Amino acid sequence: MAAVMPIPAASRVLMSGNEAVARAVWEAGVKVAAAYPGTPSTEMLEVISTYPDLYAEWSVNEKVSLEVAIGAAYAGSRSFCCMKHVGMNVASDALMTLTLTGVIGGLVIAIADDVGLSSSQNEQDSRYWGRFAHVPVFEPADSQEAYAMTLDAFELSERFQVPVILRMTTRINHVKSLVTVGERGERASAGFKKDPARWVMTPSGAGKRIPLMFARAGELRKEAEASPLNFIEPGSDRRVGFIASGPAYMHVKECFPNAPVLKLGFSCPLPFEKCRELAALVDQVVVVEEVEPLIETELKAQGLNVIGKEILPLQGELAPNVLRPAIARLLGEEMPEKRQFGLSTAPMQVFPRPPTMCVACPHLGVYYTLSQVRNLTISGDIGCYTLGAGHPWNALDTCISMGASMGIALGLDKGRGEADKDKRILAVIGDSTFLHMGMQGLLDIVYNKGNVTVLLLDNRAVGMTGGQDNPGNGRDIHGDEAPRVDFAKLVCALGVKEERIHTVNPYELPVLFKTIRDEVKVPEVSVIITDQPCVLIKDYHKLKPFEVIDDKCTGCGNCIDVGCPAIHVTRRGKEIKPNGREVDLAFVRIETSVCTGCGLCVQPCAPDAIVHHVPVSPITLVKGCGV
Amino acid sequence: MSENTNILVVGIGGQGVMTATEILAEAAIAMGHDAKKTEVAGMAQRGGVVSSHLRFGERVLSPQITPGTADVLLGFESAETMRWQHMLRPDGITLMNTARLVPPVVELGLFDYPDDPLAEIKKSGRKVVAFDATSIAQELGDIRLGNTVMLGAIADHLPFPAETLLDCVLRRFQRKGEKLVELNRKAFEAGRAAVGAAEAALA
Predict the structure, then answer these.
(1) Predicted complex: ipTM over 0.90
(2) Fewer CB atoms near the end CB (10 Å): N or C, chain A?
């Protein structure tokens, strides 16, 4: 994104948590910011890249992004990196030793936990990293706090020479609320000073720094005890007091405005004395934290009699509709719902609406083809193409983590039993995921002589997170030209034989089908690269839309199996075949206003009922017409 | 807190639900309210379900609307409007676009689209006003005006003047020229009139 003029200081504006952190990163005088896209963290770096006077990059993965930030912090500059929760798993190797060296310039790591799994393969509590690496954790409760805590985190980071984790959740990252912004402070870099005993972590050097890390943790706990980010609101209803952090604090205040609350903004190391202070005020203490019982477990170990996950769920958000009944049960009260509402609060039954691939998505051709090839076990990966597991394709058999399609495919090959001896193993991975963590897996397949066919879906974008640029599309984070990876040469360099590498247009179904069918039969590693861009990025060009000639449609339903959302059923019927078998018929139309003419549905249409749309009158579209 | 106004805007990814809610939030802020807007995006941009929560008032704490407490439900699509009825308070009102967007799972014959979502909502005993925002937008010359029609539809069901919301809508088009400003003004007024007429018919 191109740089824009930042909003003036003292403005009060509606900002998401991501936008608020981005603003604070700029104000804090950060020099280097790096990330790999991941919901719900993506917009932080997207917005940071629009601010002037700092360097921002899309890194190839989260570990590299953290390492870039570490280097900048070693050089004495303030640096920032952000990621979704699973990204921290990738980056953790660097974190666990970074805690020993510490930093010179302030380093803040924002981790976005997808509490409630809006767009993730699992749910994790990133506050564990604070305990694991003995680094402080801040937990904002809304955008204003996300902004202010980011600034505070840089101060703390420099004072203690320690990286600070800003732990966010979807309900912080993506909620918009009012933020009052400030000025940018310029900050000179201290410069990198050679100090091998500190920066070169060998066993003897690292061993000497471990006691320093624990001493620092002790000092940080004192800091947390005194921090204004941790405060008690005494309240008037002393039956239950709450210890709450992150968005859960807002939910507690919403439900129990008169209850005493200890609000923890600086939640690791945990300020035990503050917690005891709250406990002394009330009959019983409930810890409200998303998602795992970290605070609760530490307090119980301290001998405090607190209640937590005995009455609250270990999964998902602790929103008012979860909190109110749990506390009512604890107090032996009637459920507030029954008192409040006359009408049913049970949702009406409506069909599910799972996410789908876009109209004309190049992956449609791939999954339609895979659904037509028999005897495959398909190892999948993380991205839009994970949707291939759904209807109508049902053509993806595994998915766990970024790049895992490679190693899992090799394991499926090497670990196959007698029952699977004729199965063809195929791996499906996107361009960005391949560069993130798939390359090493492919090298492993080649090196260990695996029998796997790899489908590398190069759509020139990080599609699922909104089409961000990556090393595969030749553009940097600002959209400027950058060196572009040549995937065919790359996989060749990893050792895939030249004759086993094919680049195919995924809209040409017969070629794609033949290439896949031929390559799965070859008992060695093949790579099939599809080369058409994501329909959401500027590289994609629309073609003339199609329509269905109603009289010619035989209702065979072949086109529906492509899975394009522009195809709609107009009527259904039944037909008795000559062999006496009854088949269902579905006659279709194409929504020409959204069709972009990719032609995928035309190819399986037996009666040639799909033709280019001829508009009745010319359509005039005014650019940027709607909100 | 009961003094907050709770507006729920629902539809599917790509319809402009989130932008519409953001404009509503801007209007509330222009009136001096505190406001919070939330939804879960992510997969929603792939044609999935989108429900956007807006709460405003003197001070907003939790950004989420608790089931059974929404004052107004603004529905961009028929079945989606049905899906979120339980979020309304008993005397809350539904303002609903009658447009239907049928997902692939229904086209594949795996699920049925409800025959008459409007009738189902009426049967549940809640107040509902229906109108065809998509046709109104098409008559004005561009389907993308539907979003502004929807904002016009809710304009007389807010605790502040419709003009405040209209100003916030039009501000988005100022840089794009007078022609678009006028077109959106017409769309806004058409949405307002459609709800007004439908309510008069109910009375």
Answers:
(1) yes
(2) N
What would the two tokens of residue A261 be? 């609350």
Residue B44 has pLDDT above 80, yes or no: no
State how far the Cα of A291 lies from the Cα of A241, in Å rounded to an integer. 19
* Nearest in space to B31 (alpha carbons), one of B172, B166, B164: B164
Confirm whether A12-226 and A231-336 share one CATH topology: yes
Neighbours of A341 (CB within 10 A): 16
Q: Confidence band (pLDDT; 50, 70, 90) for A335?
A: confident
Q: What pLDDT does A1 receive?
A: 54
Please, what are the domains in chain B? 5-101+116-202 (3.40.920.10)
**Which chain B residues are within 8 Å of A355, Cβ to Cβ?**
13, 43-44, 46-48
Q: What CATH number was assigned to the domain covering residues A546-612?
A: 3.30.70
CATH assignment of A378-530, among 3.20.20.150, 3.40.50.970, 3.40.190.10, 3.40.50.300: 3.40.50.970
**Tens-place pLDDT, residues B68-79:** 999 999 999 999
CATH number given to A12-226: 3.40.50.970
Mind spelling out the 3-state secondary structure of A429-494? EEHHHHHHHHHHHHHHHHHCCCCCEEEEECCCCECCCCCECCCCCCECCCCCECCCCCHHHHHHHC
Q: How many contacts, defined by CB atoms under 8 Å, are there between A and B?
A: 201
Kindly report the pTM of this predicted structure. 0.95
CB contact under 8 A, A171 and B49: no
Average pLDDT over residues A601-612: 94
How far are the Cα atoms of A331, A393, A487, A510, B36 from residue A505, in angstroms, in the given order? 64, 19, 14, 10, 46
Q: What is the dihedral of CA B166, B169, B170, B171, to 10 degrees?
A: 120
Tell me: the pLDDT tens digits for B84-101? 999 999 999 999 999 999
CA nearest B175 in A: which residue?
A624
Question: Do the Cβ atoms of B47 and A250 come within 8 Å?
Answer: no
Contact B36 A319 (CB under 8 A): no
